[in-house]
Input
Amino acid sequence: MKILVTNDDGIHSPGLWALARAAAAFGEVNVVAPSAEQSAMGHAISVYHPLRLKPFGFSPLPDIPAYTVTGTPADCSALGLYEFGADVVLSGVNLGSNIGHEIWHSGTVSAARQALLQGVPGIAFSTIASETADPDFELLAPWLSRCLDVLLLLLPQERLLFNVNLPPQPQGLRWAEQSTRHYFARRQAFTTPNGKVAYWFDVTPEVDPQEGSDRWAVEHGYVSITPLRMNLTAQRQLAGFREKVDFGE
Ligand code: MN
Output
Protein backbone atom coordinates (compact mmCIF):
# COMPACT_ATOMS: atom_id res chain seq x y z
CA MET A 1 0.00 0.00 0.00
CA LYS A 2 1.28 3.47 -0.94
CA ILE A 3 0.59 6.11 1.72
CA LEU A 4 0.98 9.86 1.41
CA VAL A 5 1.34 11.71 4.73
CA THR A 6 0.74 15.45 4.97
CA ASN A 7 -0.48 18.05 7.49
CA ASP A 8 -1.24 21.72 8.00
CA ASP A 9 1.18 22.48 10.87
CA GLY A 10 4.17 22.22 8.53
CA ILE A 11 7.12 19.91 7.98
CA HIS A 12 8.61 20.50 11.46
CA SER A 13 5.56 19.35 13.42
CA PRO A 14 6.11 16.35 15.73
CA GLY A 15 2.56 15.23 14.85
CA LEU A 16 3.52 14.78 11.18
CA TRP A 17 6.41 12.48 12.07
CA ALA A 18 4.36 10.53 14.61
CA LEU A 19 1.82 9.81 11.87
CA ALA A 20 4.51 8.94 9.31
CA ARG A 21 6.10 6.55 11.80
CA ALA A 22 2.76 4.82 12.50
CA ALA A 23 1.95 4.68 8.77
CA ALA A 24 5.28 3.06 7.89
CA ALA A 25 4.09 -0.20 9.49
CA PHE A 26 1.26 -0.33 6.93
CA GLY A 27 3.00 0.49 3.65
CA GLU A 28 5.37 2.62 1.64
CA VAL A 29 5.23 6.21 2.90
CA ASN A 30 5.99 9.56 1.27
CA VAL A 31 5.78 12.74 3.35
CA VAL A 32 4.77 15.94 1.54
CA ALA A 33 4.07 18.80 3.94
CA PRO A 34 3.83 22.60 3.90
CA SER A 35 7.17 24.40 4.28
CA ALA A 36 5.48 26.71 6.85
CA GLU A 37 2.51 26.63 9.24
CA GLN A 38 -0.78 26.51 7.31
CA SER A 39 -3.36 25.97 10.06
CA ALA A 40 -6.93 27.24 9.52
CA MET A 41 -6.34 27.60 5.76
CA GLY A 42 -9.38 25.44 5.07
CA HIS A 43 -9.42 24.03 1.55
CA ALA A 44 -7.50 26.91 -0.04
CA ILE A 45 -5.47 26.04 -3.12
CA SER A 46 -2.76 28.05 -4.86
CA VAL A 47 -3.90 29.13 -8.31
CA TYR A 48 -2.19 32.51 -8.74
CA HIS A 49 1.41 31.55 -8.01
CA PRO A 50 3.62 28.52 -8.75
CA LEU A 51 4.57 25.94 -6.11
CA ARG A 52 7.98 24.53 -5.24
CA LEU A 53 8.42 20.89 -4.18
CA LYS A 54 11.75 20.37 -2.44
CA PRO A 55 13.37 17.36 -0.71
CA PHE A 56 13.48 17.90 3.05
CA GLY A 57 16.96 17.32 4.42
CA PHE A 58 16.29 17.24 8.16
CA SER A 59 13.89 14.32 8.47
CA PRO A 60 13.87 12.51 11.82
CA LEU A 61 12.89 9.40 9.79
CA PRO A 62 15.63 9.21 7.13
CA ASP A 63 14.16 6.04 5.56
CA ILE A 64 10.99 7.90 4.56
CA PRO A 65 11.22 10.25 1.56
CA ALA A 66 10.06 13.72 2.65
CA TYR A 67 9.36 16.92 0.73
CA THR A 68 8.20 20.43 1.46
CA VAL A 69 5.71 22.41 -0.64
CA THR A 70 5.47 26.20 -0.61
CA GLY A 71 1.69 26.03 -0.46
CA THR A 72 -1.43 25.04 1.44
CA PRO A 73 -2.34 21.64 2.93
CA ALA A 74 -4.62 20.92 -0.07
CA ASP A 75 -1.72 21.85 -2.40
CA CYS A 76 0.49 19.32 -0.59
CA SER A 77 -2.08 16.57 -0.95
CA ALA A 78 -2.72 17.36 -4.62
CA LEU A 79 0.93 17.72 -5.59
CA GLY A 80 1.96 14.67 -3.54
CA LEU A 81 -0.65 12.56 -5.33
CA TYR A 82 0.39 13.82 -8.78
CA GLU A 83 4.09 13.29 -8.10
CA PHE A 84 4.15 10.09 -6.08
CA GLY A 85 0.65 8.55 -6.19
CA ALA A 86 -0.97 6.91 -3.14
CA ASP A 87 -3.71 4.49 -2.15
CA VAL A 88 -4.60 6.69 0.82
CA VAL A 89 -3.70 10.16 2.11
CA LEU A 90 -3.21 10.62 5.87
CA SER A 91 -3.22 14.17 7.24
CA GLY A 92 -1.97 15.21 10.68
CA VAL A 93 -1.50 14.57 13.46
CA ASN A 94 -2.75 18.13 13.96
CA LEU A 95 -1.64 19.94 17.12
CA GLY A 96 -5.18 20.89 18.11
CA SER A 97 -8.59 19.28 17.77
CA ASN A 98 -10.71 19.37 14.60
CA ILE A 99 -14.18 18.61 15.89
CA GLY A 100 -17.60 20.17 15.33
CA HIS A 101 -17.36 23.57 13.64
CA GLU A 102 -13.56 23.33 13.45
CA ILE A 103 -13.93 20.92 10.53
CA TRP A 104 -14.99 23.84 8.32
CA HIS A 105 -11.72 25.75 8.63
CA SER A 106 -9.36 22.87 9.23
CA GLY A 107 -6.41 22.60 6.85
CA THR A 108 -5.81 19.10 8.23
CA VAL A 109 -9.25 17.85 7.18
CA SER A 110 -9.02 19.73 3.87
CA ALA A 111 -5.78 17.97 2.91
CA ALA A 112 -7.54 14.63 3.44
CA ARG A 113 -10.61 15.88 1.55
CA GLN A 114 -8.44 16.93 -1.42
CA ALA A 115 -7.46 13.26 -1.73
CA LEU A 116 -11.14 12.33 -2.20
CA LEU A 117 -11.43 14.96 -4.96
CA GLN A 118 -8.63 13.08 -6.74
CA GLY A 119 -10.26 9.66 -6.22
CA VAL A 120 -8.20 8.55 -3.22
CA PRO A 121 -9.53 8.02 0.32
CA GLY A 122 -8.32 10.32 3.06
CA ILE A 123 -8.03 10.22 6.85
CA ALA A 124 -7.46 13.30 9.02
CA PHE A 125 -5.90 12.92 12.49
CA SER A 126 -5.91 15.60 15.19
CA THR A 127 -5.19 15.74 18.89
CA ILE A 128 -5.44 18.18 21.75
CA ALA A 129 -2.39 20.38 22.27
CA SER A 130 -1.55 23.03 24.82
CA GLU A 131 0.54 26.18 24.39
CA THR A 132 3.24 24.88 26.69
CA ALA A 133 3.71 21.20 25.81
CA ASP A 134 3.52 19.02 22.71
CA PRO A 135 1.17 16.03 22.87
CA ASP A 136 2.71 12.78 24.12
CA PHE A 137 3.08 11.04 20.77
CA GLU A 138 4.70 7.96 22.32
CA LEU A 139 1.52 7.46 24.34
CA LEU A 140 -0.65 8.15 21.27
CA ALA A 141 1.35 5.93 18.85
CA PRO A 142 -0.50 2.65 19.61
CA TRP A 143 -3.83 4.50 19.21
CA LEU A 144 -2.80 5.80 15.81
CA SER A 145 -1.91 2.23 14.83
CA ARG A 146 -5.26 0.96 16.12
CA CYS A 147 -7.13 3.54 14.04
CA LEU A 148 -5.10 2.69 10.94
CA ASP A 149 -5.75 -1.02 11.56
CA VAL A 150 -9.51 -0.44 11.49
CA LEU A 151 -9.77 2.31 8.87
CA LEU A 152 -7.32 1.01 6.26
CA LEU A 153 -9.30 -2.25 6.21
CA LEU A 154 -12.56 -0.33 5.61
CA LEU A 155 -11.22 1.96 2.89
CA PRO A 156 -11.39 -0.43 -0.10
CA GLN A 157 -15.15 -0.82 0.43
CA GLU A 158 -15.88 2.69 1.65
CA ARG A 159 -14.17 5.43 -0.31
CA LEU A 160 -14.74 7.90 2.50
CA LEU A 161 -13.20 10.77 4.29
CA PHE A 162 -12.56 9.92 7.94
CA ASN A 163 -11.98 12.51 10.66
CA VAL A 164 -10.17 11.16 13.74
CA ASN A 165 -9.58 13.11 16.98
CA LEU A 166 -7.47 11.82 19.85
CA PRO A 167 -7.75 13.00 23.46
CA PRO A 168 -4.45 13.37 25.36
CA GLN A 169 -4.84 9.97 27.08
CA PRO A 170 -7.25 7.77 25.12
CA GLN A 171 -9.18 5.02 26.85
CA GLY A 172 -10.99 3.63 23.79
CA LEU A 173 -12.39 4.29 20.31
CA ARG A 174 -15.87 5.61 19.46
CA TRP A 175 -17.75 6.13 16.20
CA ALA A 176 -19.02 9.70 16.46
CA GLU A 177 -20.97 12.27 14.50
CA GLN A 178 -19.91 15.86 13.91
CA SER A 179 -21.06 18.07 16.76
CA THR A 180 -23.28 20.84 15.38
CA ARG A 181 -24.23 22.66 18.55
CA HIS A 182 -23.74 26.38 18.33
CA TYR A 183 -20.58 27.91 19.63
CA PHE A 184 -19.65 31.30 20.97
CA ALA A 185 -17.63 33.23 18.43
CA ARG A 186 -16.18 36.31 20.01
CA ARG A 187 -14.56 39.32 18.45
CA GLN A 188 -11.89 40.73 20.73
CA ALA A 189 -10.96 44.33 20.03
CA PHE A 190 -7.63 45.70 21.22
CA THR A 191 -5.37 48.67 20.61
CA THR A 192 -2.14 48.14 18.68
CA PRO A 193 1.15 49.75 19.86
CA ASN A 194 0.66 52.53 17.28
CA GLY A 195 -2.82 53.33 18.58
CA LYS A 196 -4.99 51.58 15.98
CA VAL A 197 -7.91 49.32 16.81
CA ALA A 198 -7.46 45.72 15.67
CA TYR A 199 -9.50 42.54 16.11
CA TRP A 200 -8.81 38.97 17.10
CA PHE A 201 -11.25 36.06 16.66
CA ASP A 202 -11.80 33.80 19.62
CA VAL A 203 -14.07 30.78 19.68
CA THR A 204 -15.44 29.01 22.73
CA PRO A 205 -17.43 25.83 22.07
CA GLU A 206 -20.68 25.37 23.93
CA VAL A 207 -20.32 23.26 27.04
CA ASP A 208 -22.37 20.10 27.22
CA PRO A 209 -21.94 18.71 23.68
CA GLN A 210 -24.49 16.16 22.47
CA GLU A 211 -23.77 12.53 23.40
CA GLY A 212 -22.40 10.52 20.49
CA SER A 213 -20.74 13.54 18.93
CA ASP A 214 -17.04 13.97 18.25
CA ARG A 215 -16.73 16.64 20.95
CA TRP A 216 -18.51 14.44 23.48
CA ALA A 217 -16.24 11.48 22.68
CA VAL A 218 -12.99 13.44 23.00
CA GLU A 219 -14.13 15.16 26.21
CA HIS A 220 -14.88 11.72 27.66
CA GLY A 221 -11.45 10.32 26.79
CA TYR A 222 -12.33 8.47 23.60
CA VAL A 223 -10.75 8.64 20.17
CA SER A 224 -13.59 9.88 17.93
CA ILE A 225 -13.87 8.52 14.38
CA THR A 226 -16.29 10.33 12.08
CA PRO A 227 -16.97 9.42 8.45
CA LEU A 228 -17.65 12.67 6.56
CA ARG A 229 -19.70 13.14 3.39
CA MET A 230 -18.42 14.90 0.29
CA ASN A 231 -21.93 15.80 -0.92
CA LEU A 232 -23.15 18.70 1.23
CA THR A 233 -26.62 18.87 -0.36
CA ALA A 234 -29.52 19.13 2.12
CA GLN A 235 -31.27 16.18 0.42
CA ARG A 236 -34.54 16.25 2.37
CA GLN A 237 -35.02 19.97 1.80
CA LEU A 238 -34.07 19.61 -1.87
CA ALA A 239 -36.78 16.98 -2.35
CA GLY A 240 -39.27 19.26 -0.56
CA PHE A 241 -38.37 22.31 -2.65
CA ARG A 242 -38.69 20.25 -5.85
CA GLU A 243 -42.24 19.36 -4.77
CA LYS A 244 -43.18 22.87 -3.65
CA VAL A 245 -41.63 25.14 -6.27
CA ASP A 246 -41.89 24.17 -9.92
CA PHE A 247 -39.69 26.40 -12.07
CA GLY A 248 -41.68 25.21 -15.11
CA GLU A 249 -38.63 25.03 -17.34
MN1 MN B 1 -2.85 22.83 12.43
